[in-house]
Amino acid sequence: MVVRMTYDALLGLPYARLTLVGSLLLTACNSDSKDKALTTDAGQDNTTSSATVGDAALPEPARDAAVGDGGAGALVDGGATTASDAGATSAEAGRADAGAVDAARPDAGGTPVALDSGAPDAGVVVDSGPPDTGVPVVVDAGPPPCSASAAPVIGKLGLQTVVSDGALANLTDAVQPPGSNDWYLVQQNGVIRVFRNGALLPTPFLNLSGEFAFIDGNNFEDRGLLSIAFAPDYATSGLFYVSFTPNQGPQVDVDMLLEFKRSAADAFVADPGSRRTLLATDGTRRGSTLNTDNIHNGGRVTFGPDGKLYLAMGDGGGLFCSQVEPAQSQSVGSLFGKLLRLDLTQSAPYGALDNPFVSDGDPRVWQYGTRNPYRFTFDRATGDLYFADVGQDTFEEVDFAPAGAKGLNFGWNAYEGNSDQTCKEPLRAGSVHTPPIFVLDRSAGATGPFADYNAIIGGIVYRGKSLPSLQGVYLFGANRGARLGALTHCGDTTSPVTPVTKQCNPNTPNEACLRPVDGGPAFEELRAIVEDHDGELYVVANGNSLLKVVPSP
Questions:
Q1: Among the listed residues 534, 305, 528, 499, the one whose alpha carbon sits nearest the alpha carbon of residue 402
Q2: Omega before 409 cis (within 30°)?
Q3: Is the peptide bond before 349 cis (omega within 30 degrees of 0)?
C-alpha cells in the first residue's frame, strides 16, 4: 500500500506530523506469500523531457532512476520511495515480509525459497503533519482484485495497423525505448529498423545480417536476432542489448547476449564498434559448421522491475529430449533451459549477487527446467513472472512464478506439461517440480481449441486502459494456430481459458475474436505479443506487421 499526501497542501502547513501506526497489509491476489504486501507499477508514469544527443533531440525519462520501461517508484509524501523504486536491488521488494518463506515452492535443494522483500511488513510510519488538518490523504490500493473463478469474458476486439511493410522481413519483436513512442522493430535476419512519426527510417538502427543467412528458404528455426532491451537510462547512456544466434561465421550456433551503444553522430543508428559480448554459450554447439538440430536458442531479453537484465535461454536444441545438449535444463551449472538474471553493475559474468545458485551453480541462473521459454513477461502491476514453454510432441504450457520467487524447477526434461513420461529423465536431486498453471494438449488426435498449436508464445498481462474486458488478463498465442488464449491467475488458482480467434467468423458471432480495422491485414502468423509504455497491447504478426489491439470497430 502506498500513502500519498498532496504536496501543495503540505507546503501550506506550519509543520507536518501524521503517524500511521501498525501493519498496513494489502491483500494482493497475485502472490503466494502469506502476507501480501505493497508493490509498485514499473513503467506507467512516463513523464518526458528532451535531451540532445549529437544533432538529434531525444526524449528523456523524467526519472533518471526509472526501472524497466518507465518510472517504477511511488512517491510517499512527495519524497520517500517504496522498496521497489530506483535503487532497489531485487524484484522481491515489498512482496512478502522480510524472511518470509514460501513453503510450497522449495528451491532446487529442497530448502524452501525465502522471498526477499526489502523492508519488513511491520508497519508504516509516515511523518506528515498533525491529525485533523484537513489535508487530503490519497490511498493507492495497488492492482485491482482479480478473479480466477470464471473464464475471461472478452468479446470482439479490433486490430489497428501501426506498420505493415514488406521491407520488414521476418519481423519478430517490437520495443519502445524508455521515454519514447518510437518503435524499434527487430527482424530475425539481423536488422533492426526504427518506426518514427509514422514512417520507417531509411537507415537500419543495427545490421548484423552478415552473420546470418537463410537456410532452405526461411528455415532458420530459433536463430538470428531475437530481441532487444534498452537500458533504463538509455536517453543518457545510449546502451542497449540484443539476443542473437548467428548461423554462419566463426560463432555459428553460439547463443549470445550483445551490448551496443547508439552512435554519437546519429541517435537513430547504433555504433557497430561499441559491440561487446556479455554472454556466449559453451557446450557442443561451438564450431564453424551449422548443426541443423541446434534449435531452442535464446529468446526475449528485457530489464525487470528490479533493474536487472533477464534473458530466456532454450535447452540447446534437438527435437527429442534435448539430444544436442542432454540433461542441461536440470543442471544449474548450465545456461541451457533457463531464465537468466544479470546485474550489469557486477563484473563478468554479471550474475546478480542474490541469485539462487551463486555458490553451487552458474551465478546467472534465476529459474531452470525449461525447454524453450522464448517469450516471458513481468506483470507491471505485481512483478509476477509469466512465460510460455514450448513442448516437444504432446503438451505446451504456461508457467508462473510469484514476484521474488527464485530457483524454481519447471520440470523439463523430466516433465512435459504435467507428464513425466516423455523423456523419463529425473528431476535434479532434491528439487520439486513447479507445475504449469495451464497445459494444452496438441498430441495427435487432440481436439481442443489449441490443438493446432505448434510453438506456444508467451504474452502480456494487460494493464492498459482502453480494453476494460482484458484488465488483469494474461494473453498468449502460438506461432501458428487459429486462436490466442486468455486467462487470469490469482494466488494458486487459474481461470478456465477463453479462446480468442485471430480472425472473426460471421458464422460464430458470439465468440471472442479479432478483426482488422480500416482494411488492415488479416492476422495469421504470430511472432510476439508486446505492450507500449501505457500498457496497451500489440501483436507482431505475419512476419511484417505490428498491429495494435483496440476496442471493437
A1: 305
A2: no
A3: yes
Residue 146 within a domain: no
Average pLDDT, the chain: 78
First to last CA, the chain: 38
Domain extent, residue 254, equals 156-551
Closest of 43, 16, 45, 40 to residue 28, by C-alpha: 40
Q: What total of structural domains would you count in the chain?
A: 1
Percent of the chain predicted with pLDDT > 90:
59
Distance CA 382, CA 96 (A): 12
Please check whether residue 69 is in contact with residue 176, taking contact to mean a CB–CB distance below 8 angstroms: yes
pLDDT at 320: 83
Grid cell at residue 429: 536431486
Exposure of 79 by Cβ count < 10 A (0-12 exposed, 13-18 middle, 19+ buried)? exposed
Provide DSSP, 437-490: SEEEE-STT--STTTT-SSEEEEEE---SS-GGGTT-EEEEESS-SEEEEE-EE
pTM exceeds 0.85, yes or no: no
Q: Is 162 exposed, middle or buried (0-12, 13-18, 19+ CB in 10 A)?
A: middle
What is the residue-wise DSSP string for 215-268?
STTT--TT-EEEEEEE-TTHHHH-EEEEEEE-SSSTTTT--EEEEEEE-SS-TT
For 17-45, b/e burial (b = at least 16 CB within 10 A) is ebeeeeebebebbbbbbebbbbbbbbbbb
The residue to which cell 506439461 is assigned: 417
The pLDDT of residue 250 is: 81
Q: Is residue 390 part of a domain?
A: yes
- The SS3 of residue 528 is strand
- Largest pairwise CA distance in the chain: 76
Listed in sequence order, the residues at least 6 apart from 244 whose beta carbon sits closer than 8 Å to its beta carbon are 190, 208, 211, 224, 225, 226, 255, 256, 257, 258, 298
- Within a domain: 33: no
Q: What is the 3-state secondary structure (H, E, C) of 493-526?
A: EECCCEEEECCCCCCCCCCCEEEECCCCCCCCCE
pLDDT given for residue 326 in this prediction: 83
Q: What residues does 52 pair with on adjacent strands?
A: 57
Query: What's the number of CA atoms in the CB half-sphere (13 Å) around residue 386?
Result: 30
- Give the HSE-up count for residue 40: Cα atoms under 13 Å, Cβ half-sphere: 30
The reply to whether 397 falls in a domain is yes
The DSSP symbol for 112 reads E
Distance CA 432, CA 33 (A): 18
Q: Are 341 and 352 in contact (CB under 8 A)?
A: yes
Cα 510 to chain centroid distance, Å, stands at 32
CATH number of the domain at 270, please.
Answer: 2.120.10.30
